[in-house]
Amino acid sequence: MTSLKISIVEDDAILCDLLTLRLTKIGYSIQGMYASGEDAISGFSGRVPDVVLMDISLSGELDGIDTANIVQTRYDIPVVYLTASTDSKTFERAMNTGECEYVIKPFTDNDLFIAIELAHHKHSLNKKLRDKGKCLEKVLGDFGDAVISTDEKGIIAMMNPAATDLTGCREARTRKLSLGAVIRLEDETGRPIEDPFLRAKTEMDALDIPPGVSLISPGGKRVPVRGSVSPIRDEQGNFMGVILTLAPSARAKVLRPG
């Protein structure tokens, strides 16, 4: 039997009472019922539930999607949307919230149970990954070499301070830049070398950066570098991204083009 604490944000008092009965029957405990997004946001400051059941069509200045965005940003709580609408625009807007599930009215007890458990499970897994990522960033922050990681599409997920200093790019993560947009590598003749992300993805093996390669800074400076690129795999061996390490080579001086 589950012991999750559920808060309900629903402006229909009859449906709110019905949800309370059905959720209690399943085995959940109810931690707050709110008729508006504003009341929920204020109420969660004192008691944070495990999952929020959120009516999308709330009355007031904040609808359910607006409320969910604030709740997730401020309190990091997974959301299960309740709606009678199957409008595609509403659905797409709701899915952009982040950690959420979607239940169409009318719904069964099993529909509620599955959506709530999925939302909580996904949130728990993602929180563990975020915590591991923070620990990794702390460790890599003290690294002398530049370290950059990407997701499976090549978008930069992490850069340690050494990477920021070496590349001169301080907005890679906030702007969701690709590795190729930040890292420009050329051989001694000035020809671009093969994209390290694509090569690691194709060969699925750790690879060294060839000798004689230079990193070209946004200002056109050439810095001879050494390094390697390695694929990141999940537990099933699927490609999840790459980790690129770079450091100025022993002979490195800042060389201007020409």
Radius of gyration: 24 Å
> What pattern of helices and strands is seen along the backbone?
EHEHEHEHEHEEHHEHEEEE
Number of strands: 12
How far apart, in Å, are the first and last alpha carbons? 72 Å
Describe the protein's topology.
Layout: E1 5-9, H1 13-26, E2 29-34, H2 37-43, E3 51-55, H3 64-75, E4 79-83, H4 88-95, E5 100-104, H5 109-141, E6 146-150, E7 156-159, H6 161-167, H7 179-182, E8 185-186, H8 196-203, E9 207-208, E10 214-216, E11 222-233, E12 239-248
Parallel strand pairs: 1-2, 1-3, 3-4, 4-5
Antiparallel strand pairs: 6-7, 6-12, 8-10, 9-11, 10-11, 11-12
Helix pairs in contact: 2-3
Give a concise summary:
With 258 residues, the chain is an alpha/beta fold. 36% of the residues lie in helices and 25% in strands. A hairpin with a 5-residue loop joins strand 11 and strand 12.
Overview of this structure, please?
This protein is of the alpha/beta class and 258 residues long. It has two domains: 5-131, Rossmann fold, CATH 3.40.50.2300; 141-248, PAS domain (Beta-Lactamase, 2-Layer Sandwich), CATH 3.30.450. It has eight helices and twelve strands. The protein has helices spanning 13-26, 37-43, 64-75, 88-95, 109-141, 161-167, 179-182, 196-203; strands at 5-9, 29-34, 51-55, 79-83, 100-104, 146-150, 156-159, 185-186, 207-208, 214-216, 222-233, 239-248. Strands 6, 7, 8, 9, 10, 11 and 12 form a seven-stranded antiparallel β-sheet that branches. Helix 2 (37-43) packs parallel to helix 3 (64-75). The longest helix is centred in the middle third of the chain and has 33 residues, at 109-141.
